[in-house]
Amino acid sequence: MAQIIDGKALAGEIRAEIAQQTQELIATGVTPGLAVVLVGEDPASRVYVTMKEKACAAAGIYSVEHKLPADTSELELLQLVERLNQDERIDGILVQLPLPDQIDEAKILEAISPAKDVDGFHPFNVGRLVTGNPLFKPCTPYGVMVMLQRIGVDLKGKNVVVVGRSNIVGKPVALMCLAEHATVTICHSRTQDLATKVAAADVVIAAVGRPEMIKGDWIKPGAVVIDVGVNRVGDKKLVGDVDFAGAAERASAITPVPGGVGPMTIAMLLHNTLESARRRAV
Ligand code: NDP
Question: What pTM value is reported for the model?
Answer without folding.
Answer: 0.97
